[in-house]
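S2.1 Query sequence (Exodeoxyribonuclease III)
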Amino acid sequence: MKIATFNINGVNKRLDNLLAWLATAEPDVVCLQELKATDGQFPKQAIEAAGYGAVWRGQATWNGVAILASDSEPVLTRTDLPGDPSDTQSRYIEAAVNGILIASLYAPNGNPQPGPKFDFKLAWHRRLASHAADLFETGLPVVLAGDYNVVPEPRDIYPTRSYDDNALVQPESRAAFRQLLDQGWLDALRKTYPDEQLFTFWDYRRNRWQRDAGLRLDHILLSRKLRRRLTGAGIDRDVRGRENASDHAPVWITLRD
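Output structure tokens follow.
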């Protein structure tokens, strides 16, 4: 089973890119982030024509998350992250696919920091940690995939001082990600490549793609029941280099049946 996460940065703007990648990569499950489309604007027909059922939660202009499943319909279980009824941002969705509970998440960026946006980011991550702990304790096979907007370690960013004040690399942000690992979740990409420098995002500005000045922001975490089923992982870097590309590349894992 191949499970991928892809911050598409505008599902309609990048629809041709998405469909081309689906045709070549052939993932069984895809978690999408930053749809930047309302529910009614989601390209349901094009996704279905590509062979995928889908559930999604859209939002005009910003955010938006979805889960696609090859030749099947995801069974929707949740459309928001619990813990704050006042939070109306479309950043979390959950569905069951072939016996696995899949979550697609898009964590807040948090910039500028310090400030209310950074406070919201940390509060959102606390809610994620609480919900993740509950999921982990169930013992079910669970995947938490998406754009966490956290660079977990210094090696997950190119050598630079330009991000020193950025919310993505702050100690509090990294501690929030570490809390998930301390619960027992497995960082599948880092498990597969324990010593390599890995990037999943390259900003459009300052020729960062051309210079390979990247960051690792997109992560796939596995619950205890899936740890031993992990057989591979990777980053489809070439997708970032295509015309009209998202500033993120797809990240994927394979699981033994």
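The chain has a mean pLDDT of 98. The radius of gyration is 17 Å.
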